[in-house]
Design a protein that fits this description.
The structure holds 2 protein chains of 2 kinds.
Chain A: H1 4-23, H2 27-55, H3 62-92, H4 111-134
Chain B: H1 3-24, H2 32-54, E1 60-64, E2 76-80, H3 82-105, H4 112-131, H5 135-153, H6 160-191, H7 196-204, H8 211-225, H9 234-237, H10 243-252, H11 254-264, H12 266-270, H13 273-296, H14 300-320, H15 324-352, H16 357-360, E3 363-364, H17 366-369, H18 371-384, H19 391-407, H20 416-445, E4 450-451, H21 460-480, H22 484-487, H23 497-521, H24 541-556, H25 568-573, H26 577-581, H27 586-632, H28 639-662
Parallel strand pairs in B: 3-4
Antiparallel strand pairs in B: 1-2
Helix pairs in contact in B: 1-2, 1-4, 2-3, 2-4, 3-4, 3-10, 3-15, 3-21, 4-5, 5-6, 6-7, 6-8, 8-11, 8-13, 10-15, 11-14, 11-15, 13-14, 13-20, 14-15, 14-19, 14-20, 15-18, 15-19, 15-21, 15-24, 18-20, 18-21, 19-20, 19-21, 19-23, 20-23
The chains are: A mainly alpha, B mainly alpha.
Chain lengths: 135, 664
């Protein structure tokens, strides 16, 4: 199999993941998109490992070994990520990334409740602004 | 103990007393009075011992060099000749009297410990100036006196007059001290040494390259310290200090330091004829101007201050005609009677509750309230007016005699012009002196009107001292004029017949004219009521005086002047009175020439600093602030925006790397 097929496939996968990370609003879907990007990289690693072992005398298969590492780390990462999303959802009642803007300049946060309150107020202001803009 | 050890102890004891007084003032208040009086008294005894051992013979000299200082060595040197020995005794006597007097005068003053320590420090500095044989060591004492004077004049710093006067005294004397320092350096460079003996040796051998320049520079410092025209304006204002300080610093010792300095270095001044004539003109202007001003003052202490300026003018006049014996003779007798006048004035201010002559002239029987002050002040005023046989007569006649000698060409030590200037001004001043002494006496003790207030007897410490000082005021001149030449240059100090007759005659005329004028005006006293009396007349004398000074301006419109038509000085001076009362507008001239330009310059500097420099600083800060605000707007809190920016950056970098790699 020519190297171009897995390479193009992995590029498509990566672009899909990237689009998801940049455009999706739901935090869980963002995490899924990250997984897509990781798997694109994995595919690349495996494909190039095969290609290199044909042309050069690389008998260690370090590409495949690295893929195993990536899968393990991705599993850990998704576990932590989902846990964070879960706790954010429990606290705020939403996992919408657009509404988690506590690190914005000029944002005043005093404690989790105050922060939530401020975030809600900011949301309301934002919605009002949007309503005005659409009107 | 050797004489040198004794002489070292003389300035050292009051210094140690001052240090101990400052340290123990708060923790052990019981020791403050002994620590103030005893070291000064001990150093007086030692000074007398030193004088007895020196005996007016060969000068005692000793020197030690602590450390090499480069080009011209500075040595801790003693040089005690007859002048130094006798002036040290005067300083010791006056300082002891003042310390004893102060224990009564500032009885309840909370700042007495620091006051007494500063007076001790001042005494020590003056004795250092007197005994020092090295010009730099002399300068150290000279400057310590300046700073002590600043602190002591400002003792009543609650009153604005005292604050202003202390700063003025400091600045004006420093104005003279800067040229003085340069003059000392120039002198030492020419002579190759700061030792007075070596300097005088160089002068004698004609080794001085710029005598006129050096003499004039030194003269500026002397004019500042000895309150000679045109730097005399600080002395009348310095009367805002406590009376004992006025007696010690501004009558008997510090102001005499300048005269004493010239007396020591007289050959340097004699090397330049121009300097001697300048000295004579300075003395003449000082004498006559201060005499006129004294006749118009309303504050009893300001009369005495102007009188001090005038008497110092006599001393500089004597130096201008090259007779330092006469100058130091007048310094000694003047020190005694002027200290007495001031201390008596302090008693009178306490008893009357006011320092205004106009108010005193409306009090009947003030002399019965303070008989000690009345009698001693009469003695001192007669000495001041140079009536024989009081001590002022002999010393003043020796000055006039020396001037007459030079004027008629009997000696070649000084230019004849200096002799004539001093003689004419001296005789004119004798007239004025007698006039203002008479006016002071009549207005103070012969008032008419309400009975003087009775605050009980004055403290014993204050009255005994007056009698102690009355003895030299009465008898010093007559007893000493025969023996003093042995201590000095050996020149005769016996009063000459012509100048004595003319001088005494002129003084009598002045006194009689003033008396007639007083008889003429005294009827007006009852018609124009005047007078403000201190709020707490039962307080200690220092408090009464501070209140009297503070209330003079609100009550009479000026610190120096009272609108009193019953004043004989007003009749005598006529249209001149208005100008004389304010010291011939010299303060106004200085304020226009120096004070206002300096203040304008200061406000200009403030404007440049506040408006120009700070604008640049703020501008430098404003741009980064603006940039920071712009960058902060990028931080939206939306993670996806950040990642998008990251991606864009990565793409740009990748493309750039690709382009560089392919060499496009």
């Amino acid at each position: 199999m020519h190297l171009a097929y897995p390479a193009v496939l992995s590029a498509l996968l990566f672009c899909t993941g990237l689009y998801g990370v940049l455009a999706r609003r739901n935090a869980i879907l963002v995490l899924m998109s990250v997984e897509l990007m990781l798997n694109a990289v994995n595919l690349n690693l495996v494909a190039f490992d095969v290609w290199l072992s044909k042309t050069a005398r690389d008998t260690l298969h370090s590409g495949q070994a690295l893929t195993l590492f990536t899968i393990a780390i991705a599993a850990a990462e998704i576990g932590i990520g989902l846990a964070i999303v879960l706790s954010v959802y429990r606290n705020r009642g939403t996992s919408d990334i657009d509404k988690l803007r506590d690190s914005a300049e000029g944002h005043e946060s005093d404690g989790p409740d105050g922060g939530a309150l401020a975030a809600e107020q900011a949301d309301q202001a934002e919605q009002a602004g949007k309503a005005e803009a659409t009107a | 103990m050797t004489t040198t050890t004794l002489a070292v102890l003389v300035p050292l004891l009051p210094f140690l007393g001052a240090a101990a007084g400052l340290l123990l003032g708060r923790t052990a208040p019981g020791f403050v009075r002994p620590l103030a009086v005893l070291p000064t008294l001990a150093s007086l005894v030692l000074a007398v011992l030193v004088a007895v051992r020196q005996g007016g013979h060969q000068a005692i000299g000793a020197a030690t060099e602590l450390t090499p200082t480069g080009s011209i060595p500075i040595e801790l040197a003693l040089y005690i000749d007859g002048f130094a020995a006798l002036v040290a005794i005067l300083v010791g006597v006056v300082a002891t009297c003042v310390q004893i007097y102060s224990t009564g005068y500032l009885r309840d003053d909370p700042r007495y410990p620091s006051y007494a320590a500063l007076v001790s420090l001042f005494t020590s500095a003056m004795l250092l100036v007197v005994y020092s044989g090295d010009l730099i060591v002399l300068l150290v004492g000279w400057e310590i006196m300046g700073i002590c004077s600043y602190f002591l004049v400002g003792h009543y710093w609650e009153t604005p007059e005292a604050r202003a006067a202390s700063i003025k005294a400091f600045l004006v004397t420093k104005l003279g001290d800067v040229p003085f320092l340069i003059g000392l350096f120039a002198l030492a460079t020419d002579a190759g040494s700061f030792r007075i003996t070596k300097v005088l040796g160089t002068v004698a051998s004609g080794g001085l390259d710029h005598p006129t320049l050096i003499a004039l520079l030194l003269l500026a410092g002397v004019a500042g310290k000895s309150a000679q025209f045109p730097l005399h304006t600080w002395l009348p204002d310095a009367m805002a200090g406590p009376t004992p300080v006025s007696a010690l610093i501004h009558a008997a010792t510090m102001v005499a330091a300048g005269v004493y300095f010239i007396a020591r270095l007289l050959p340097v001044f004699e090397a330049s004829q121009a300097a001697m004539v300048v000295l004579a003109v300075m003395a003449a202007v000082t004498m006559v101007g201060s005499g006129l001003a004294a006749l118009a003052q309303d504050d009893i202490k300001r009369v005495l201050a102007y009188s001090t300026i005038g008497q110092l003018g006599y001393m500089t006049g004597a130096l201008a005609v090259g007779d330092r014996g006469a100058a130091v003779f007048h310094l000694l007798s003047h020190g005694a009677f002027k200290a007495l006048l001031f201390l008596a004035a302090g008693v009178i201010i306490h008893a009357a509750g006011t320092n205004s002559l106009a108010a005193m002239s409306r009090m009947r029987g003030l002399r019965d309230r303070v008989p000690d002050a009345y009698w001693t002040m009469t003695v001192a005023l007669l000495a001041l007016a140079a009536i024989p046989p009081f001590s002022g007569f002999f010393s003043k006649e020796s000055v006039l005699g020396a001037a007459e000698h030079v004027a008629t060409g009997h000696t070649e030590s000084a230019p004849g012009a200096a002799g004539w200037i001093t003689l004419v001004a001296g005789l004119l001043t004798a007239l004025l002196t007698a006039a203002y002494a008479m006016r002071l006496w009549l207005l103070t003790f012969h008032g008419r009107g309400a009975e003087a207030p009775d605050h009980g007897r004055q403290p014993l410490t204050m009255t005994v001292v007056l009698w102690v000082l009355a003895v030299p005021s009465l008898a010093l001149g007559g007893l000493a004029y025969r023996s003093l030449p042995g201590w000095f240059d050996g020149r005769d100090l016996t009063p000459a017949l012509t100048t004595s007759v003319v001088g005494t005659g002129v003084a009598l005329v002045g006194g009689i004219v003033t008396y007639t004028a007083w008889r003429h005006t005294t009827a007006l006293v009852a018609r124009v009521p005047l007078g403000a009396v201190a709020a707490h007349p039962e307080g200690d004398a220092g408090l009464v005086e501070a209140e009297a000074i503070a209330s003079h301006k609100p009550a009479y419109g000026d610190v120096a002047y009272a609108p009193d038509p019953a004043d004989p000085g007003r009749l005598l001076l006529g249209p001149l009175h208005r100008h004389a009362a304010v010291g011939f507008h010299l303060d106004a001239v200085y304020s226009a020439l120096f004070v206002r330009p300096v203040l304008a310059g200061a406000s200009l500097v403030r404007f440049l600093d506040r408006e120009v420099v700070e604008t640049y600083v703020r501008g430098a800060g404003a741009l980064p602030r603006l940039l920071g605000a712009a960058v902060r707007r990028a931080q939206t809190g939306n993670v996806q925006t950040y990642v998008s920016a990251l991606l864009a950056g990565t793409v740009v970098l990748a493309v750039a790397a690709l382009l560089v790699a392919t060499g496009a």
